[in-house]
């Protein structure tokens, strides 16, 4: 009885906000959390500036913001204003859950003069009002620099391992499409009991263009191959890798990635490609009907697990 009363007290003291971009996932997490759903109004002034107002009394409440953003440029501003409004209204704790961390691709200076966007974003979310930030499988946690202390990276590669374990066997070759994916691929190979691992040497002659130079490691000739990466954005890396592996004699090629951004016609490219299956999680909303090759793995339990101590 005491436990029930205690639980109800916590639930009543929590408000959950979403950006309504990923209805299925947002609904599942809301049902799990059980608290009130908050809302906010926003508009754009004639001069282009944003305005945002929360419609709830956040004072003394625990807040969970599930920020699955679609239109990064606009929604990042809305998110910053939301965090600020919550903190200004004296929320007791603001927890930001961002399954995909926007602007995480630029995580180091490759050429003098470049901004490190991922670190800046983490600092902005934190100074706007997020006391704790969760994300899933961020591109490079180290790239956050000093802002690393604000961000907890949930790295559950076993979720995807569990999904593809049923689809492949130890005769397959597992391939990293670039140096950055090497650690991930080594982990997957061990978990999937695959001995044959290869890495591709990738070169970007300019932003958005991908060239594969070389295959290092196991031969893919007459083999079934799975490419493993953190994200598919334009699909440039994936398609270039798949074509290269086909030219090296691979018999069948599939791919797995945590985040499916699918910008710039990536799904059409995948549909037209030699790829057989593409496994992605639903950290971002995905229209699985847009490609018969897609298999989507749900991550709501991962989110719930991370948030459970806040409900
Ligand atoms: C690169 O470092 C990443 O791990 C991905 O390979 C890359 O971001 C995918 O982008 P795209 O699909 O546009 O090639």
- Which residues sit in consecutive blocks of at least 5 with pLDDT less than 50? 5-10
Please give the count of helices. Answer: 9
What structural category do the secondary elements indicate? alpha/beta
Q: Name the average pLDDT.
A: 93
Beta strands, count: 15
Order of helices and strands: HEHEEEEHEHEEHEHEEEHEHEEH
How would you characterize this protein structure?
There is one protein chain. The chain has 311 residues and is of the alpha/beta class. The chain has nine helices and 15 strands. The protein has a seven-stranded mixed beta sheet with strand order 11-10-9-12-13-14-15, with helices on both faces. Strand 13, helix 8 (266-272) and strand 14 (278-281) form a beta-alpha-beta unit. The longest helix is centred in the N-terminal third of the chain and has 17 residues, at 72-88. It is elongated. The protein starts with a helix and ends with a helix. The relative contact order is 0.12. Mean pLDDT is 93; it is low at 5-10. The site of ribose-5-phosphate has 16 residues, from strand 12 and helix 7.
Quickly describe the structure.
With about 300 residues, the chain is α/β, with parallel strands linked by helices. The protein has 9 helices and 15 strands. Helix 3 packs parallel to helix 4 (about 115-130) and helix 5 crosses helix 6.
């Amino acid at each position: 009885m005491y436990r029930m009363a205690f639980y109800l007290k916590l639930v009543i003291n929590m408000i959950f906000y979403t950006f309504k971009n990923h209805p299925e996932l947002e609904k599942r997490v809301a049902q799990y959390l059980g608290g009130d759903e908050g809302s906010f109004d926003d508009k754009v002034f004639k001069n282009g500036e944003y305005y945002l107002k929360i419609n709830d009394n956040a004072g003394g409440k625990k807040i969970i913001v599930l920020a699955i953003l679609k239109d990064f440029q606009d929604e990042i501003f809305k998110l910053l204003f939301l965090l600020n409004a919550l903190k200004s209204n004296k929320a007791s704790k603001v927890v930001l859950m961002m399954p995909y961390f926007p602007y995480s691709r630029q995580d180091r200076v490759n050429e003098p003069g470049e901004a490190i966007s991922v670190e800046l974003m983490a600092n902005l979310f934190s100074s706007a009002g997020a006391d704790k930030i969760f994300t899933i499988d961020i591109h490079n946690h180290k790239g956050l620099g000093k802002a690393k202390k604000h961000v907890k990276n949930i790295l559950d590669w076993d979720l995807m391992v569990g999904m593809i374990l049923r689809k492949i066997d130890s005769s397959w070759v597992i391939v990293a499409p670039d140096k950055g994916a090497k650690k991930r691929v080594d982990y997957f190979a061990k978990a999937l009991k695959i001995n044959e691992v290869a890495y591709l040497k990738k070169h970007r002659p300019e932003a958005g263009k991908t060239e594969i130079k070389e295959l290092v490691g196991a031969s893919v000739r007459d083999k079934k191959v799975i490419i493993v990466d953190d994200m598919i954005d334009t699909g440039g890396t994936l398609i270039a890798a798949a074509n290269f592996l086909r030219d090296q004699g691979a018999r069948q090629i599939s791919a797995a990635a945590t985040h499916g951004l699918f910008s710039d016609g990536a799904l059409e490219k995948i549909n037209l490609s030699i790829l057989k299956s593409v496994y992605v999680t639903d950290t971002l909303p995905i229209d699985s009907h847009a490609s018969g090759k897609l298999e989507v793995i749900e991550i709501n339990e991962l989110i719930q697990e991370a948030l459970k101590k806040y409900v």
